[in-house]
């Protein structure tokens, strides 16, 4: 989605919005750490993010890769910086082509800084001389596909009148060439900013202005950043911060209050500005503190438009339905379906391509290293030890399992005790959701989608189980006509009690002025494809241990002999009903397993 459309939508609704900027790190480990941080900071509710392009284009490939990851896996609308520095036309075209392929609809066009080691900016052969040349090139070759942003400099207000006038003329020329909104350079003098906005408007420029806000993290960082950008520091800031400059915690605390007051003033002024763009410097704490100081609470519909993470690539942007089986393995699902011609939108049926990608086509792996696996899961030597690991994961005492890289979702806490009990009884759960009957769409645990809606879920359980325990469970399940199930073994033999070939919607939302949205389903073909992955993950867990070790044999045997089962309770009014058959069968199994002592 274009950023200008987001700004217009938020303005119509009278809402304050915010966005974050990040820059590509220099190392592979730094990149992974940053992507993990962007994933966490997504929960702070940015409307979009932007990724910088280093002077000279040294990190151009990394910028493109970050844009791809943020659009497809993290599901954040992303704006890509693009500079003229050391960028011949051919390289610019590659960057724009890749951005379009990744679903990016927004570009910040800049001339850029001089390359490292040079004081003066100079164009490369076959490149662009000014930012306006880049703007014209994008419009000529891509029409209105991209929103184009440009930079604005509030400190131009401090220039002599004739120089200020020239800067305004150049700014207006860029706008007329086809720009859609303005990001400003960071500033701390709010009076200068306000005067600059008025000056811009007086010159007939009406596109949105997005103020660039830089949280104050440390004294040295603050002084270095303002020096590099030649940013004026108001005396009022220095009076507060300089006395505590050797205390980073105090600098951050007081600096947060100063910047928050500046933001509040901007939002209160009749400037038509309702958004703030935070220069995070790839740091989380300062931005989070500033949002909290401003009392800017993320909206559920921004963080979670659907119960699962959307991919914003061109082919998947309209996707609205996914099978529940990959709930904890989004990247795997995206990989195995990346070659589909169409993605389900509204109904999960014949519009979809006929097959999931084979496991060999992209590989299944456990995120943990052997060292991490040993720390997490130890060396289990009995089934009860394995069951205890699963139980501890459900209660939040264990950070991960081979089938889930992250801790259980917040909704799992609602049924954590029941899940823990199931695991102790021998049903090794790898996926679940509780029944929900009309939770508000802004509910902190179950909420997703637009405001003023209601959310419904059928209870769902997925687990590995031994053949003996399953045979005790099935009669109890079949006594409840509201339960449907699928059972499959490693060889692919499928058993079910459902008489329908179609999907079973297990999550849906009802929203004002919209059709009912059914984003999560249970469906036989998808379960059979997921089966291969589920067993392979267990096998990979076994390989974390020496081939002749008790742990390796225990886990390998478990995967060879267990069945994979999913169960849906179709009466979402009764939250506890799904667990009753398991407690009965588990208790029965335990009583049969106890050794007979003295004839009893």
From TrEMBL:
Pathway field: One-carbon metabolism; tetrahydrofolate interconversion
Which one GO biological process term can you cite for this protein?
tetrahydrofolate interconversion
Pfam families in the record, alphabetically? MTHFR (PF02219), MTHFR_C (PF21895)
Names of required cofactors: FAD
Which terms are listed as keywords in the entry?
FAD, Flavoprotein, NADP, Oxidoreductase
Q: Which domain of life is it from?
A: Eukaryota
Q: Which InterPro entries match?
A: FAD-linked_oxidoreductase-like, Fadh2_euk, Mehydrof_redctse-like, MTHFR_C
Q: Which residues form the MTHFR SAM-binding regulatory domain?
A: 304-578
What does the record give under GO molecular function?
FAD binding; methylenetetrahydrofolate reductase [NAD(P)H] activity
NCBIfam families from the UniProt entry: fadh2_euk
Q: Which family does it belong to?
A: Belongs to the methylenetetrahydrofolate reductase family.
Name this protein carries in UniProt: MTHFR SAM-binding regulatory domain-containing protein
What is the species listed in this Swiss-Prot or TrEMBL entry? Leucocoprinus leucothites
Q: What is the lineage of its organism?
A: Eukaryota, Fungi, Dikarya, Basidiomycota, Agaricomycotina
């Amino acid at each position: 989605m274009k950023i200008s459309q987001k700004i217009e939508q938020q303005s119509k609704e009278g809402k304050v919005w915010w966005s974050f900027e990040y820059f590509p790190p220099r190392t592979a480990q730094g990149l992974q750490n940053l992507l993990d941080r962007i994933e966490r900071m997504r929960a702070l509710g940015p409307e979009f993010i932007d990724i910088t392009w280093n002077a000279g284009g040294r990190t151009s490939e990394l910028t493109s890769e970050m844009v791809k990851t943020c659009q497809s896996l993290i599901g954040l609308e992303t704006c890509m910086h693009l500079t003229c520095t050391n960028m011949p036309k051919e390289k610019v075209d590659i960057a724009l082509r890749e951005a379009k392929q990744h679903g990016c609809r927004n570009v910040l066009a800049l001339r850029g800084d001089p390359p490292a080691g040079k004081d003066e900016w100079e164009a490369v052969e076959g490149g662009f001389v000014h930012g306006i040349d880049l703007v014209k090139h994008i419009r000529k070759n891509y029409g209105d596909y991209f929103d184009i942003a440009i930079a604005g400099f509030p400190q131009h207000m401090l220039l002599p009148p004739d120089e200020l006038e020239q800067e305004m003329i150049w700014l207006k020329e860029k706008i007329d060439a086809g720009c859609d909104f303005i990001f400003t350079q960071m500033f701390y003098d709010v009076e200068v900013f306000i005067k600059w906005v008025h000056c811009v408007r007086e010159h007939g420029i009406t596109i949105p202005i997005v103020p660039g806000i830089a949280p104050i993290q440390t004294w040295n960082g603050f002084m270095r950043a303002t020096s590099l950008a030649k940013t004026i520091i108001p005396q009022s800031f220095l009076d507060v911060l300089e006395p505590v400059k050797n205390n980073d915690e105090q600098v951050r605390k007081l600096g947060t209050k100063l910047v928050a007051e500046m933001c509040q003033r901007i939002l209160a002024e009749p400037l038509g500005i309702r958004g703030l763009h935070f220069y995070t410097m790839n740091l989380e704490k300062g931005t989070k503190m500033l949002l909290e100081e401003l009392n800017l609470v993320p909206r559920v519909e921004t963080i979670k438009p659907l119960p699962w993470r959307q991919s914003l690539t061109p082919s998947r942007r309209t996707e609205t339905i996914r099978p529940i089986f990959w709930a904890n393995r989004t990247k795997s699902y995206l990989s195995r379906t990346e070659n589909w011609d169409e993605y389900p939108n509204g109904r999960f049926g014949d519009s979809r391509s006929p097959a999931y990608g084979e496991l060999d086509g992209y590989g299944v792996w456990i995120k943990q290293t052997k060292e991490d696996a040993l720390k997490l899961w130890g060396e289990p030597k009995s089934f009860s030890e394995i069951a205890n690991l699963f139980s501890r994961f459900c209660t939040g005492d264990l950070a991960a399992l081979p089938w889930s890289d992250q801790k259980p979702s917040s909704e799992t806490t609602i049924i954590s005790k029941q899940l823990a009990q199931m695991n102790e009884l021998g049903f090794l759960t790898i996926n679940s959701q509780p029944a929900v009957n009309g939770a508000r769409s802004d509910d902190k645990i179950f909420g997703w989608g637009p405001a003023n809606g209601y959310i419904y879920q059928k209870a769902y359980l997925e687990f590995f189980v031994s053949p003996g325990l399953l045979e005790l469970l099935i009669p109890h399940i079949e006594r409840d006509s509201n339960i449907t199930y699928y059972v499959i073994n490693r060889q692919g033999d499928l058993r079910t009690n459902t008489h329908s070939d179609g999907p079973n919607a297990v999550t849906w939302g009802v929203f004002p002025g919209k059709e009912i949205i059914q984003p999560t389903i249970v469906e036989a073909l998808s379960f059979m494809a997921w089966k291969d992955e589920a067993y392979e993950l267990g096998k990979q867990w076994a390989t974390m241990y020496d081939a002749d070790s008790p742990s390796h044999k225990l886990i390998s045997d478990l995967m060879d002999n267990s069945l994979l089962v999913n169960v849906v309770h179709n009466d979402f009014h009764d939250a506890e009903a799904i667990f009753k058959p398991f407690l009965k069968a588990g208790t029965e199994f335990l009583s049969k397993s106890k050794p007979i002592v003295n004839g009893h």
